[in-house]
Amino acid sequence: MGGILLLLTTLLLPVQSWAASVKVVRISDTAEKSRVVFELSRSVTYTIFRMHKPERVVIDMQHTQWRKHAMKIVLPNPVVKSVRHGMHKGVLRVVLDLNRKGLAMRSFLLKKMQGKPPRLVVDLIRQSGNHEANVSHSHQHELVIAVDAGHGGEDPGAIGPHGLQEKKVTLAIAKKLVAMINKQHGMRAVLTRKNDYFVPLKKRVRLVRQSHADVMISIHADAVREREVKGSSVYTLAERGATPDRVAIALAAKENAADEMGGVHHAHNEVEDPMVRNILGDMAKRDSLNSSQILAETMITSLRKIGKVKYEVPKRARFVVLGALEIPSVLVEVDFISNPKQERKLRTSRYQQKLAAALFQASQHFLRRMGMLANRNSKKTS
Ligand SMILES: [Zn+2]
Description:
Low-confidence stretches: 1-17, 129-139, 266-284
CATH architecture of the largest domain: 3-Layer(aba) Sandwich
Structural class: alpha/beta
Mean pLDDT: 82
Bound molecules: zinc ion
Number of domains: 2
CATH class of the largest domain: Alpha Beta
Distance between the termini: 71 Å
Number of helices: 9
Order of helices and strands: HEEEEEEEEEEHEHEEHHHHEEHH
Radius of gyration: 23 Å
Strand content: 25-35%
Number of strands: 15
């Protein structure tokens, strides 16, 4: 009797405990892509594949059900013609019928964060028009990593007890990181500054946008009065109305003040300007904030392998340099230049190389996890 009961329980439990549901399906369209987002009650195991004639995307989600009124996509949509769904043995099959051919696809799961439900994101990327420059002959998108070396020119950034300037450290690490990226097949780097000159924060943002970058990494070195403080920390852009974080706000105020050093004066809290506000309200932007979080977490994991990490979770604040990007963007404080021991290390090419390698590996992990970079490790031959 007990045996039968136990058997029944084990048969029933997996279905009950794994049941997830699709709560909302929505779409956002930009010039580059259409993003279909499935808001879920909990994370799912899924498979996704393409079928042609007619063009469609098929998504199978394990132990998942479709909730009534989940469909929020207004049809017809320029890309998605119709959305169908059906259940078979606990597997929910969703079919996106497409209106057009030649779309590249990528998909990834976002875990529950900042009060938002877990989501399955499917990007349908246009491969013509404005975006053509980024598509190589093999129809493979070359991933562009924007590398931002903090400060420069009249703005030295933080200065260590023995005179090492933050702007020198950030540029040295940035250049090493760029060299690593450019050696990698399918990846290319762009720098917001290539030498010791001043670039206003908003211009950096503009440069990153013009480069059609897929990811942005801003490199800095921190400083505080207490000389013994050390370790790296990673920051992302905070959403409006997010719970304020005192440490992160103080740091953002410091980094945002960079422009004043170069003689650029703008209103207090520049991130609040109307242009940026619009972008932040956009759905694509909201998803990029979440992928920024994943990128930041990947960075922390990678940096932990080479030294102390000051905060185990990424911190958020309203950095001007991260303020207007629809792509995953992080600001990394590689260490404390105010710590004499760390200052000495930061001066060495060896430590700079280690930090650059950590940032590089994290970027690669992130791009693979997002399905943006193929799972291979080929070096460029040329
Ligand atoms: Zn800085």
